[in-house]
Structure prediction request, 311 residues.
Amino acid sequence: MSHDATPPAWAEHLLRLAVGAGEFDHLSGDLLEQYRVTVLPARGPRGADRWYVLQVLGFVWRGARGWALLFALGFLARTAFDWLVPTQHFYDRALVTTITSASILFIAAFWPAWRSGSVLAGPLFGLATTALAAPLQIAGTLALLAIWHDPGTQAAISGSGGLDEVFALPFLVMLPAIVIGTIAGLLGAALASLRRPPALRA
Amino acid sequence: MADTLGAFEQAVLLAIVRLGEEAYGRAILQEVQTRTGRDVAAGAVHATLERLERKGLLTSRLGPGTPIRDGRVRRFYRLDPSGRRALNEARAAVDTLWRGLRWPLKGSV
Prediction:
C-alpha cells in the first residue's frame, strides 16, 4: 500500500467539475483510498490510473446521460416529423428545435457549473451531452430508416436536407454545444460565486 | 408499504447494515464488490446512496478523514427506520415467492 501514490491530477480536476464542490471532498477521498489500498497493489500504477480515470468518466456519464437522452429524443422527433409530415417551410420547425436543443444544452451545462463554481464545467458538460447523444441519434435515425423507407419518405428525406445532413448534424452540434456550454458555465459560475459567503470569494 | 427496492439498492443497504458505524463511501463500495463478486463503479454506489437518502431510507453525516485519503472527509451512512422496513419487506416478498419451492431448483423446473 502506498500512501503517496496519486492518481492523474487532471482526472481529479475533472472529478471536481463533474460532482461539484460540495461532494468533491468525500468522493475524491473515497476514490483515493480505493486507489491506494485496493487498486494500486492489484493492478499496478498504469492499471490504477486507468481505473481512476474510468471512475471519473463514470461520474461525467451519470451527470450528462439524462440530458443526452433528452437531446437525442428532441433530434429524433424533429427528424421523424420532417420525414413523415413534409413541408417546404422549415423555418418555424428549425426555430422551435434550435431553441429547444440550445435550452437543453444550456441547462445541462449551467447546473454543473453552478454546483462546482467552475466555468469549465459548462463546456465539459455541453460537449459530454452532445457526445453521448450522438450514438443515440445515429442509432435512432437508422431505426427510423428501417421502419420508414418507402419512396414517399425517401422524397421527404431528400427535401429536408438528405441523409448526409441527418448523420452529420450530431457531430456538427458539438462545437456550438461548447460555445453554449461556455456561456452557461460563465453564468453558472458567476451565480455560484454570489452564493458563497463574501469571505470565501476569490 | 415501503418503497420497492431494486437488487442493487438492497446490496447497498445491506452493506450499510453489515458495516455499522464504519459505513462510509469507500467501505460500502468495497463491501458491495465483495458480496456481489462484481467490479462495481464508485459512481453507481454514490448515485444509489444519494437516491436512497432522497427517498428517506437512510441519513448521512460527514466525519473525519484519514491519512490514506490525505485527510479528506468521509461521508458516513445510517439506515433510517423506513430503510430497515423496506429491507424487511423486500426479504419477505422474496420469501413469499419462494415458499413451497425447494432451493436450488433441479431438473426440468
The longest helix of chain A spans residues 21-84. The helical segments of chain A are 9-19, 21-84, 91-116, 121-147, 151-159, 162-172, 174-195. Chain A touches chain B at residues 1, 3, 23, 25-34, 36-38, 54-55, 58-59, 61-62 (CB under 8 Å). Chain A has a mean pLDDT of 93.
